[in-house]
């Protein structure tokens, strides 16, 4: 596309990003507000953070959420990577169409339906609802996202690399372990991160399958903000937003730097 | 077929069968069952332990009364219609907001673009719930928007925005904006700049060149982005429950309340089945658009 | 040494009836669904050969090679390696190695580890692997680059790493899939000679797939010209060029004039080919019997056609025409001459003098002449 960066472009980008970021900036700012009113500034204070950390219910919910996210995203990454490999590489097998349908369906399924369906399954088979059922549900819907991320990487993967490994004496499993996996590792890692974030973030499905005994952080947030704005939630949001921001910015810096280094090395290689 | 290959296919396959497909079969079954006040609050129509006879009696006892109920009770079909209306309008609004952003990004200098990309993606990694919540303090009666409106003198007293459909539109546009911007941006970025130069060389003005060349070529991105907003917006639950009011009818919210507040599982299941049937059309259209794109890329 | 090499017979195992082939394709057919990639193909390849598979894309040459590597199985027919049917042997147990078109270097491993990759999966003791890798690095002159990753070396160096990696296990047979396709022209020519050198040093049998006829002619001991899954001609480069067996081969390899006509035997194994109304017939020497009245194609290379302003004396064939176009290529010039019936015949002249007397120009009347053995008679 030819670049004619005009005033119109600059204005639309500025307004667009203002729209995207202003609400979050306001949210973060007012987490440091002295007053309980979230819309009137009454001086700087960190007291809501203190209250947040003294609130055992929040700490428990955070712990449950973290546990669920780590376990479910790890299992989902293993299953999702396998599914991606099956979709891209396994060729034809009976039921392939249904398989790929089941991989893509959860991506577009409204969460209320997925949640309802899962809950009815757990009740039908008589499984007690709690942390375990949340983990099962999260594995199921996040593995599909992992599989999409990994399979798009696998689709562009030069298949002759695997053939070269076979040609040089690898068994198919050995070829996967020592050639394919190291090369697609970045996609697997981003699949894991995506699954982890989705699990941390999920409210609706957890709400359905959690039962009375387990509460995740989003469930806790939802039940308190339903009653109105609450500075303690602003403090919690600020913490979560900072974690994500630091994570995304450092990930993009790392990848930017490694791309730059790779380019420089390629240039140097051409000159030698 | 060797053992490893079999395991590779079977593990994810079996998982999805048990935790995805079978649950939907159960939803369908309950949607066809009768309501009963018990826990679980339904009487199963299909008695699996009765074998073939059970199946036969299942077929004869099979009734669509929950679906008839949905059709008869105005609450449900107005909820479906109002969900459709809200989803269509907010998709269109997201397109109006998102296209100029994507266009500006595609025109931006090369060295800015990774940063701009990151800025679009960043909200996506941030909690959905928090992003919706952040609008509550802006849109409330004492909120920042009303403060701004009164300060500029546009209104004398605060207007009700939170707990109206307007707030729901704002929430949907805000949370789903990255889904609209990214596909349009990637379509525009692929565009060969010499095409616009050729159009201008052949006598188009800049605006004509945009409508005759740029926009048609970015259409796959527009279509993809619209579906990515429309499909989740239709079944949305969090946004109408936090930003919408009691008059905001969206089917996701109705389903949730039917299930948790009224504890009418058969009707909730029937609502889910109908919602799925409605969603199949846009999902199939979306898949076809993606397929066409993939073929065009090859 | 000189004595020996002078007495050494020409390398031509395909002419020796006692020689056993290393590879034998017996009536091999390969189908992909309805598409026939290889059509009932029978072929022998001998030890120490540098065998080139040449043809346009989609002719089946890559499929043939992938069957040797084990990535495809024949639909019918057998492939024997050293007399043993290789169909049931998976690629990782075959004594063949392949150099991939994309090189397929493992991006996450260094040059050293790439070369050692196959050795580590063989029964070679660990302490010998290092020495073998060093040996291969010396062979391709990349000792200094052992620690680099593939993206840190140039395209030509990557090509040599790929070659070293595929040679490291000392395969009975090395398969090269368009090995020089990614290199620019100058580097490609240098590398062709390097490949021949390495082939001779290691004594490995090479099978190379290429669509570049010049490359096939340069490196190969024999060239197989393929089309639509069939072998059209298998022969040494010079015979492929000088005595093509079909219009397809004549046209595929190098530049050629093809003149269609009707043959009539003239005695002493000669034929006269009537090709245009009112023109003298072309006198030619066919390889076999030609029946009277048979439709034939007469193929003659442009460099075998002489061009003069006067009618030459004592040439078996002379055709008059007008110069239509002249292409000056530095070392040679090509004249496109329009003869009877609007037909174009190309003549090529070596520019052996620096400043030639440009006595032939556009629209000049000229004579094209050639001997009665200069061209090939191909039956339609």
TrEMBL record, chain A:
Keywords recorded for this protein, A-Z: Cell membrane, Membrane, Transmembrane, Transmembrane helix, Transport
Record's subcellular location: Cell membrane
Signal peptide: none
UniProt-listed InterPro entries: Bact_Polyamine_Transport, MetI-like, MetI-like_sf
Pfam families per the UniProt record, alphabetical: BPD_transp_1
Transmembrane segments: 7-32, 68-91, 103-125, 131-150, 179-200, 233-254
Domain ABC transmembrane type-1: 62-254
Topological relation to the membrane, as annotated: Multi-pass membrane protein
Family: Belongs to the binding-protein-dependent transport system permease family. CysTW subfamily.
Protein name: ABC transporter permease subunit
Organism, scientific name: Albidovulum salinarum
Lineage: Bacteria, Pseudomonadati, Pseudomonadota, Alphaproteobacteria, Rhodobacterales
UniProtKB/TrEMBL annotation, chain C:
Domain of life: Bacteria
PROSITE patterns given in the database record: ABC_TRANSPORTER_1 (PS00211), ABC_TRANSPORTER_2 (PS50893)
GO molecular function terms listed in the Swiss-Prot or TrEMBL record: ATP binding
Keywords linked to the UniProt accession: ATP-binding, Cell inner membrane, Cell membrane, Membrane, Nucleotide-binding, Translocase, Transport
ABC transporter domain residues: 23-253
Role of this protein: Part of the ABC transporter complex PotABCD involved in spermidine/putrescine import. Responsible for energy coupling to the transport system.
Subunit structure: The complex is composed of two ATP-binding proteins (PotA), two transmembrane proteins (PotB and PotC) and a solute-binding protein (PotD).
Name listed for the protein in its UniProt record: Spermidine/putrescine import ATP-binding protein PotA
Gene field: potA
